[in-house]
């Protein structure tokens, strides 16, 4: 986590950096800081615990003139979120400054050795250790700035995306990457470095994604890329696909609400061009590439974290239903530290919105080392997972800024539906007619999403009734079960109400003991194969005075006899249920969080891109 941004060029650096930090706040918002390097070799640092807006208060009225600078927004790992632990950090003499996203794993031993050699530290961070080390290498070896950074990094174990400034070399900006993301924007006579491209999207579309083990040296207007062992690399310049509008709120009060309302478009974008109703086919280049393997594969393993793990559960049901392949869905963090039985026959799918989640990436590295084929379903183009995998499919949800994932989830499910159907067709486990029916149904989904979103007003009323609840239960069966998990996660993430998702029938084995008149129970009770069973579960809740909010299929009048509130969604294929049923749950969490005056887009303690273990 943590967001980094840096600029060197002919413009004023501070507005670019502060604006960039606001766009990167989704990565962490425990503190913010900025370093500015003037041509008079003056290094100015301002930092403050809290959000970028609090840093702006600190710097109001100050002379911020500088054409080179960098900024950081922090998600605390080592040391509490206070002003001292905020980045940038300085070397002992104050000549060098650093910003860092990642964790220096051997910082404790490096720190001890540096203390023995007389270094004094101000903060509790691992980052300050690194900048002291760089300065020591610089002084002891009588080498230049760039060489000192390179040599110091050979002693470091861990993950980092760092940018360093040196008072002595005001024309230089040095960045280095291992394990944490870093992208360089190349303008005319100016360069940008950032965790993602959002801070500079209005200035340039030309970018280079730095690879692990590489260092970027910007000397005035010249960019050189080297490896840590000093081999020069030719930068691979790519063109950015995101636009400024896509990372702004567009009139909505919060990014999360905008992103919920974008889902008819983002689902459409995720299947557009891939489905061909006329000849009943699906084009997914990554899946086609492994056609032979997928036809014969004995099992598929899906790894992910958080909401992406929930999409993985939907993927399990889809792949088993349509392609008749056994699937295991694993928390990436657990999978990587077990000793999983894996070999070259396995096919491992990683699901990740950011494409940067450290545990998911590490799970893939493990799978690759065992010879498995690795496949990514990611949203952020050019991120680490798509670059590491053998093949993949982008979700095309567009930038998701709200920390709680919404449109990325439905886009992931869309990609999984297509993938399951594509494999089913290759294997012959689905008839052409059934496939065409499903593809036709898919085309109707954007309109059905629009219709589902019309329940917003009713959901605000329901949110008002339940906004002070202490606990909530979410129940579902079949495809409704991952939806229940995702609904509960959304509520806890942004409103801080304790919520559990459960398979509806499992309620009898524990959660039923919690049900009383204070307990809202959200039940996915659509007219699908499990309908009667779920209605029985609702009766069991009602018998204990629980208050039921049912997500039901349009036209189902009967359900209102059992539920306190009914939110209707259009009728749909059972396998596509998560695409619709999740939406009212996203809105319910959103409105409850707004009524509780929570910070919806940046919930406490969370971050969008979890680049630490
Ligand atoms: C964080 C985010 C979640 C997300 C999870 C996995 O916890 O707050 O919204 O689901 O990471 O992230 P990924 O980018 O891998 O989907």
Helix/strand layout:
Elements: E1 3-8, H1 13-24, E2 31-37, E3 43-49, H2 52-59, E4 68-74, E5 89-90, E6 96-104, H3 107-116, H4 126-141, H5 145-153, E7 158-166, E8 172-178, E9 183-187, E10 190-194, E11 206-209, E12 214-219, E13 222-227, E14 232-233, E15 238-239, H6 255-261, H7 263-271, E16 275-276, E17 281-282, H8 285-289, H9 291-296, E18 300-304, H10 306-323, E19 327-331, H11 332-337, E20 347-352, H12 358-369, E21 373-378, H13 384-388, E22 391-394, H14 407-427, H15 432-453, H16 456-466, E23 471-476, H17 480-495, E24 498-503, E25 520-524, H18 531-543, E26 547-553, E27 565-569, H19 577-595
Parallel strand pairs: 18-19, 18-20, 20-21, 21-22, 23-24, 23-25, 25-26, 26-27
Antiparallel strand pairs: 1-4, 1-10, 2-3, 2-4, 5-6, 6-7, 7-8, 8-12, 9-10, 9-11, 11-15, 12-13, 13-14, 16-17
The structure holds 6-O-phosphono-alpha-D-glucopyranose.
6-O-phosphono-alpha-D-glucopyranose (G6P) is lined by residues 305-308, 352-354, 357, 360, 403-405, 606, 608, 610.
State the secondary-structure class.
alpha/beta
Low-confidence stretches: none
Which strand order does the major sheet show? Answer: 3-2-4-1-10-9-11-15
Mean pLDDT: 94
Strand fraction band? Answer: 15-25%
Count of beta strands: 27
Percent in helix: 25-40%
Ligand catalogue: 6-O-phosphono-alpha-D-glucopyranose
Task: Identify the quaternary structure here.
Answer: single chain
Count of runs of 4 or more consecutive helical residues: 19
Distance between the termini: 10 Å
Main pleated-sheet profile: 8 strands, antiparallel
Categorize the overall geometry: globular
Report the C-alpha radius of gyration, rounded. Answer: 25 Å
């Amino acid at each position: 986590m943590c967001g980094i941004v840096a600029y060197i060029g002919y413009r004023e650096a501070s507005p670019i950096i502060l604006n960039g930090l606001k766009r990167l706040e989704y990565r962490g918002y425990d503190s913010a800081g900025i370093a500015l390097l003037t041509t008079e070799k003056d290094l100015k640092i301002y930092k403050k615990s809290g959000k970028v807006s609090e840093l702006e208060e600190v710097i109001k009225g100050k002379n911020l003139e500088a054409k080179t600078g960098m900024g950081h927004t922090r998600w605390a790992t080592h040391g509490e979120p206070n002003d001292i632990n905020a980045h940038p950090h300085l070397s002992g003499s104050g000549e060098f400054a650093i910003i860092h996203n990642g964790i220096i794993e051997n910082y404790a031993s490096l720190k001890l050795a540096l203390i023995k050699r007389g270094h004094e530290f101000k903060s509790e961070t691992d980052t300050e250790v690194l900048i002291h080390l760089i300065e020591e290498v610089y002084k002891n070896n009588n080498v230049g700035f760039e060489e000192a950074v390179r040599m110091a990094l050979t002693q470091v174990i861990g993950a980092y995306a760092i940018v360093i400034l040196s008072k002595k070399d005001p024309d230089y900006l040095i960045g280095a990457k291992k394990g944490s993301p870093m992208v360089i924007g190349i303008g005319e006579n100016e360069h940008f470095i950032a965790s993602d491209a959002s801070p500079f999207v209005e200035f340039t579309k030309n970018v280079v994604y730095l690879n692990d083990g590489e260092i970027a040296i910007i000397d005035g207007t010249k960019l050189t890329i080297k490896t840590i062992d000093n081999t020069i690399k030719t930068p691979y310049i790519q063109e950015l696909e995101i636009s400024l509008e896509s990372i702004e709120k567009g009139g909505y009060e919060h990014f999360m609400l905008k992103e919920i309302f974008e889902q008819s478009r983002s689902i459409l974008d995720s299947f557009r061009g891939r489905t061909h109703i006329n000849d009943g086919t699906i084009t997914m280049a990554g899946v086609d590439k492994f056609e032979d393997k997928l036809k014969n594969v004995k099992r598929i393993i899906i790894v992910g974290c958080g909401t992406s793990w929930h999409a993985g559960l939907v993927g399990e049901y889809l792949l088993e239903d349509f392609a008749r392949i056994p699937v295991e869905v694993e928390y990436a963090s657990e999978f990587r530290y077990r000793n999983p039985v894996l070999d070259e026959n396995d096919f491992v799918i990683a699901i990740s919105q950011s494409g940067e989640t450290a545990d998911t990436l590490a799970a893939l590295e493990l799978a690759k080392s065992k010879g498995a084929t690795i496949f990514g379903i990611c949203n952020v183009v050019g991120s680490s997972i798509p670059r590491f995998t053998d093949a993949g499919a982008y979700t095309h949800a567009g930038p998701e800024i709200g920390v709680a994932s919404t449109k990325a989830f439905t886009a992931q499910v869309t990609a999984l539906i297509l993938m399951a159907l594509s494999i089913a067709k290759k294997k012959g486990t689905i008839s052409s007619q059934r496939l065409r029916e499903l593809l036709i149904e898919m085309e109707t989904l954007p309109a059905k999403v629009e219709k589902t979103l019309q329940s917003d007003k009713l959901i605000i009323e329901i949110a008002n009734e339940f906004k002070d609840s202490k606990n909530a239960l979410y129940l579902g069966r079949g495809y409704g079960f991952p939806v229940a998990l995702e609904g509960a996660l959304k509520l806890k993430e942004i409103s801080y109400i304790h919520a559990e998702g459960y398979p509806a029938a499992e309620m009898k084995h524990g959660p039923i003991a919690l049900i009383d008149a204070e307990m809202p129970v959200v039940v996915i009770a659509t007219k699908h194969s499990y309908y009667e069973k779920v209605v029985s579960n609702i009766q069991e809740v009602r018998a204990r005075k629980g208050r039921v909010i049912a997500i039901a299929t349009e036209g189902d009048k009967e359900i209102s006899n059992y539920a306190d509130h009914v939110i209707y969604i259009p009728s749909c294929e059972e396998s596509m249920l998560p695409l619709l049923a999740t939406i009212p749950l996203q809105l319910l969490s959103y409105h409850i969080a707004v009524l509780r005056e929570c910070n919806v887009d940046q919930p406490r303690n969370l971050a969008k891109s979890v680049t630490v273990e």
